[in-house]
Design brief:
There is one protein chain. By secondary structure, the protein is α+β, with helices and mostly antiparallel strands. It has a single domain, classed as outer membrane lipoprotein receptor (LolB), chain A (Clam). The protein is 19% helix and 31% strand. The protein has a twelve-stranded mixed β-sheet. The longest helix has 17 residues.
């Protein structure tokens, strides 16, 4: 239990720094990918290359993932760049954003650990979905921010002292004032960034300089994928305004 608490504490701090699957059923589907031609050569200057990569964020639908060396916080997902709708998969859950609504499905062991009304638990156990509104604090959150999942690249777009360490690879430093997270210090992280052949972010690795065992790795892939992220059938959905389920899923 203490190990889990320590890992959760470390992961939570990294979530502050990070700013941080395919759809399967109920209407969220992913289809064949397409690749757009590069708009311009990748700049040789590291700062310019990262700026150009930032400008591409959000212009194409994509798949993404976040790995934090702590399974309850790991996730994969797909996002539609035009609608902003997305779907994420984590351990024993699926969350889909469609407009201003969240659709949540919980399975496996999570069904026995998440506190919720019995009627909601029974509905989920039968394979249904819960619909909840987006949380009111979403602009201060990572996952529920309107800029998700592109904000997962914040540590790369705000990196300083960037240097080239490979053909399309860069390293830099990301500094965070953690006062807003209840901590009192400024924390420094090392950032490693890989771009794809068209100069788009493909992998961003963030590591605590003082605790290199704690890290976040974010990936973007399949740019241009066709993603049809829609609400599940109404017959499979029940409404629940209590957002505590997001806390128990460690998504708040």
């Amino acid at each position: 239990m203490r190990f889990r608490q320590l890992m959760a504490t470390g992961a939570a701090a990294l979530m502050v720094a990070a700013g941080v699957g395919c759809s399967t059923n109920g209407g969220g589907r992913a289809f064949a990918t397409r690749t757009l031609p590069s708009l311009a050569p990748i700049p040789s200057d590291p700062a310019q290359a990262l700026t150009a990569a930032k400008a591409r964020l959000g212009t194409e639908s994509a798949r993404f993932s976040r790995k934090m060396n702590y399974e309850p916080l790991d996730l994969t997902g797909i996002v539609n760049a035009q609608t902003g709708n997305w779907e994420i998969h984590g351990k024993d859950y699926v969350v889909r954003r469609v407009g201003l609504d969240l659709y949540i499905r919980v399975t496996g062991d999570k069904l026995h650990t998440v506190l919720m009304p019995q009627a909601s638990a029974d509905h989920l156990a039968a394979g249904g979905w819960i619909r909840s509104p987006l949380p009111p604090f979403r602009e201060g959150a990572s996952i529920f921010n309107d800029n998700f999942p592109w904000n997962l690249a914040n540590q790369a777009t705000h990196a300083t002292a960037a240097t080239a360490v490979g053909n399309r690879s860069f390293a830099g430093t990301y500094t965070v004032d953690e006062a807003d997270s209840g901590l009192t210090s400024t924390k420094e992280y090392s950032v490693s960034v890989d771009l794809d052949e068209q100069g788009r972010f493909s992998e961003i690795a963030l590591a605590d300089v003082g605790r290199p065992d704690l890290g976040v790795v974010t990936t973007f892939s399949d740019f241009g994928v066709s993603a049809d992220i829609t609400a599940p059938p109404t017959s499979e959905v029940v409404d629940q305004d209590d957002l505590s389920i997001l806390v128990f899923l460690e998504l708040s």
